[in-house]
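Format is chain and fold; as here:
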Amino acid sequence: MYHDLTTCRRVATVRERFWIQRLQSIRPKGLNIYVPLGRTVKSKQRAWRPKNWTNSHRPNSALTACVKCYEKTTNGKIKIHVHEGLDSHHRRTAQKWLAMTEHHSDKDIETDMQHSSHRHRIGVLRWLNENISNDETNDSIFKVENLLRTLLRKRAERGQIPVNNFGNFIKLVHSNALSTFLDVRTVLREPAVRELYKEDISICDKQATPLGRTICNFTAVSLQVRPGMPFPDPKTCPCLSNTMLFKTEDLLEGHIATCNPQLIKNPDLRSLFLYGAKFRQNMSAETILESLEIGLNDFVARKLKHNNSKEFSQRIEQWRILVYERCKQNLQKYMETHPLQFRETSGITPVVKQFQRIFAVCPVDKTTHNLGIVCKSYYQYVESTQISTKAYSVVVNETVEEILARHRKFNDVNGYIHVDRLPYQYGVPKFHKVPPGWRFIAGVCREKRQQSEEPSVFEIFKRLPHEAYCSTTDASKWLSGKLQLVMELLQMKDNESFQKSGIRRCWFIRVIDEVFLEIKEQQELLKKKDPRTFDFSTMYTCLQHQLIKKNVRIAVEEAVEYAHYRASKDGKCRIHLHSLKNVEDIMEHVNFIVDNTYLYTEGGILVHQEIGLPIGTNSAPEIANLTLYVPERDFINKMILENKEDEARKHANNFRLQDDVLTWGSFLLLQKSTDWNIQKPHFQMDRWYI
């Protein structure tokens, strides 16, 4: 095979073909000993060079005798050595660009830089930062670094992948895994079908209700929480004397708390838990053709709205009948050969109901697809205890109706949708912690459905996307959009400052893709730097309300001030400035969201959260990001005032996504610094290494 290029290409994998092209060799797995000089040149065998690709061979003393690899002349100029050795290609390029600063314009230098690869430019910038200290830099060094940074992609300003137009589509409820055997996509491409309707049609599979919506009962359990619930005695608790689980040591304070489905004795129930919360449970096999009929009727009705000519109506109706009959034939043919696969499947069984009487079934932190099994009495006790902490105060001067009336007034003034509903709180176990902990999230209960009822195919087809709504949701969504603009402006300002000085004051990011792209593009700059991650284990629930209001105002005013400055030069800033023109309106919404964090249960709990924000609030991530932005900015500014610019530059590759911080090479500086931790006195921090 290795001597037959045509055969090799046929059997090689995609990655093998990639390396064949990259290495110009049909032996890309280390077997090739011939230099690829082209087809017309006689093969030349490689010379044997032991340890050529390792660092273990003896270094050349002549190449390592130079310590600094640059020198400062008497007139203040910096001359970089261009001898062979480590980073020699970066040093030669850096010296060329430094020499060009004396006789060439910035435009000429930038044009020359663009001829180098992105990776090479990053390498030159890394060498300058690592080897020439801030005390010895001059205007030429600053100019080269500034021009190199202008060619970097700016954080949070990368282009997004355009979404293709979906076009014509048929919406089908994927009610059963065997719906696949309708083979509707193949049918739509058949010549007889294409003759009646020539346009391409996509299939949009609308999934049935996930298993977690029917098997989880944490909402109903949380809504029954009462104030001051006593600790249930493990000796008399039904969770330990139940007959549905095998004996286990997965206990919390003597009560069962686990996510191990193998403990369930009933095999059918165990299989449901093994599928996980996001699994789409099959409906009956009869629903397959029902789903197809509903989808085809909907497609035809939409088409006839725009073209009701008699000829088109007859042709589209013939098309509908033909597609239905061909799909029905495909399904019947498969059913005849695989009858066992079409046995009936049940929904919520009596076994599930019996299980829910003893245990609370809930999602698990970090792995929401898994289902947690917690003693129902203990679950309610944990929630009741959490709401009794100092972060919450019992509301005694207002009723639920009065609070909702006040919210309605605010919503009516601002033109928002009002829903007479307050959020509740539910717990999610952290089984990855030792000992296990809890994360508490604010949720909104929808209208109740009888447990015996299961949605029909038509109900699933017409079902709108689920969106949790309470009395403050619309205001919180409006605020989230405005604060996103503030964050974008602060990132734009920081990018501009970073290009000039190499110092970054703004660490937060809005989407995780920003981190992946920047790390990928700056591999040369980040190499040899140790990445570390921090996690604020209690951030949302520890933010003081006065600190939130103060810092968010500072951040909003800073963003608006920058937008004013850039409005005449940047169209995006001009648009953002128009959206943020009323700072007091934004702060009014901040005050409304922060001051109206109420939690309610049908068991009689009505509390106001006086410290922190509930996880699950629409605008909570933006509020928390801007609250922490101010101390992070001040932390860097303090270094600059103390002439520690070199140290400040080491934090230029820090990222923070809400309560998670990623650093490159600045871990020890943050660990030793008291200023950064003083700015966050209320946060507990977990640290671990990558």
Remarks:
- The longest strand covers residues 531-538.
- Residues 31-59, 678-690 have pLDDT under 50 and may be disordered.
- The longest helix spans residues 473-501.
